[in-house]
Amino acid sequence: MAVAGAPRLLASGLLAVLPLWACDVGDTSEPGLQHLELLQQQLRLLAGARHPEALPLTWVHFPKAGSSFLNVLVHTPGFCPGVPLTVSIDEDSFGCRFATNFFNACPDLCDPASVRCQASPHECIGSRYPELEGHMVGLFRQPEQRILSAYHDEARTWMVLGTDCTHQNSTKPPAPIFARYFAGTVAYQLVGEGLLNYGGGHHWLPGLLDIPERTVEMAEEAVRRLQGFAFVGITEEWDLSICLFRKIFGGPCHALDFSNTRSSFPGKQAEDFYDTAPLEGFQDEIDRIVYQEALRIFRQDLLQHNVSMDSCHDCFAQAGRH
Ligand SMILES: *[C@@H]1O[C@H](CO)[C@@H](O)[C@H](O)[C@H]1NC(C)=O
Ligand SMILES: *[C@@H]1O[C@H](CO)[C@@H](O)[C@H](O)[C@H]1NC(C)=O
């Protein structure tokens, strides 16, 4: 697979890095106690915004939870100086396996102190949790919606590793059977080791036929590991999630970061829900446990960072969302 976009990106050279949180620092010339309080508040904001202890970030990418999030990461000032703000990491610039191709080019494009160039987009955490704790960022999606999104992904069967993008074998079992294969794989990605030597990468998420049994105990450990995330987003709450990420890590709100680069069908947005009837009542009891905790953390972080549709107004306006 040719990496069509990489040479063009490399040739474009370094970006002028935008000042972090320039707007929040504001006018500090006001004298007196009010000024001091304001300054202290701003310093706290600044420290919180940069979160130096969280760097380098590791993107934990669960299939179908939103590969568009890669744009948000690379467009964060200083993270990937080799990627201009106007470039979207998607199938047009990096081919069908765009996330894989991007990570192959990553060492030339990104600052290793800010973002970890992982060996594959869908990594498993496994025994590396102690070293990745506090550095992980990721989006979580309602489990049955994630299953159906995978089921409708015609470019990828997800059943057999390596059959993606070929469009050659989209033989799929009926939806309720597929769901049983796909269920619990968020818990597995957070706790399981993955494949250690596949395609030159490490800790790859295996094909669905090869993932070991997922258990409630695995989900419980996954819930513990969610506490090691520096950012938890929710796919169904895309706009608020991106706004929250920008509040925590800084950077401009950019139109590209709010677009879905890999719709399952034209016009499909993450906010539109699949009809779950084809699952015939099947529910993902394992990943539901993980998702509930992700929702809890997300809501708590929205409150902590004062992120709401209202407070994100400027961010959304900047991205042309209104
Ligand atoms: C296509 O998928 C079916 C069912 O998973 C499998 O038995 C078959 O070997 C696959 N064919 C190819 C060419 O990969
Ligand atoms: C939270 O955001 C609102 C705007 O939605 C703003 O009016 C309010 O002052 C903010 N609160 C804090 C504590 O920053």
Automatic annotation (TrEMBL):
It comes from Effrenium voratum. Residues 1-22 form the signal peptide. InterPro entries: P-loop_NTPase (IPR027417). The keyword Signal applies. It comes from the Eukaryota. Keywords: Signal. The keyword Signal applies. This is Uncharacterized protein.
